């Protein structure tokens, strides 16, 4: 393990030093950075998988209460992640340019700005939690648990933000191992805490929120320790400086993060509209939809792991002004992502029923969920392309056009088709619309990558 870590650290130094790399060295670097992130992403998915399974075994009502507000929770998390990336991409550029003092200056300011941002998101979440389930079309039988779950997730969102910021900063510095290991530990803690709160203490849906929140709290503390104390490049110990936000850093963060935030806001809104389309189909459909999404995430989490590696490599190459290296990392990362997620899609198609049966003992939910997963499996290759290429564009700070593309695809294709197909085909119709849209999104992202217009941002 140490040898592999040393190798990717040395190869990352090649970017800053302007040294040439062979195709094999580039591929090894992409893989060495991707593997820890993929493992962390998969472990996070397994965490949600186990969480959903624990709640699912409490019955369809418990699953539906979480599933109803789940997409809104993703929206909150997405807004936090956008703020984090607004600052961490700047850190990647500074490190690529060998300007470590600027990297630490951005880090200090990010701590203040992201904390304030997370407090505002938490406040809004608490204010709307009581009425949210009814706004989403939920029935009175699940509204109480759904409101309580969402409120607790909102409170613990502060720690989720800080944990995400620490992990993003470490990854953009090239350290994938520590945040990945901590995220894996968070998943293990989540399972233990959830079992304690849900089953031992009998707290049901509220126990699921408390278990996850406590795991996020512990992980956030550890992540900050490794970032602020132990990181070779970004440690602030013995390196005094101002934490006061400065106009240039904040403006750059807004330029990078605002389109991502708007994208998460409108994409989250689209997910909420999707929930509104599914809600009238009944409690079984809501539960199958929620559990099916959790199962499907096993397929696309590796894509997000490779995308994180691509953001780091493209970001540092961009900072170093290496145009050809930036393009090479972009193309190779995309190919790897498509290959991995195609394989995952095949496995999901084969084992759809078995995966759903791990989530719930209700035969009706298993049957409809498995049918939906097999529909979605055909979209995984192009979904991979959109995920990884979006990470590439983030690495160069190009976030506005990709956001517009994603939003146009989601609102113009998925929701339109879902509304039309749901009335005739039920939940499988909604998932057919999802598969068509993800394929379309992948095609337009791949087209933009290959045309190369985004490369105009890269000097050198």
* Helix-strand category: mainly alpha
List segments where confidence is low: pLDDT < 50 over at least 5 consecutive residues: 1-7
Distance, first to last CA? 35 Å
Number of strands: 0
- Tally of helical runs: 16
Task: Provide an overview of this structure.
Helix 2 runs antiparallel to helix 10 (283-319), helix 3 packs antiparallel against helix 4 and helix 6 runs antiparallel to helix 7. The protein has helices at 2-17, 23-56, 60-96, 100-128, 132-135, 140-172, 177-200, 204-230, 247-278, 283-319, 323-350, 352-359, 363-377, 380-395, 400-425, 427-451. It has 16 helices and no strands. The protein is mostly helical and 460 residues long. The model is unreliable at 1-7 (pLDDT under 50). It starts with a helix and ends in a 9-residue tail after the last helix. The longest helix has 37 residues, at 60-96. 85% of the residues lie in helices and 0% in strands.
Notable traits:
single chain, 460 residues, mainly alpha, 16 helices, 85% helix, disordered N terminus
Short description:
This protein is 85% helix and 0% strand. The protein contains 16 helices and no strands.
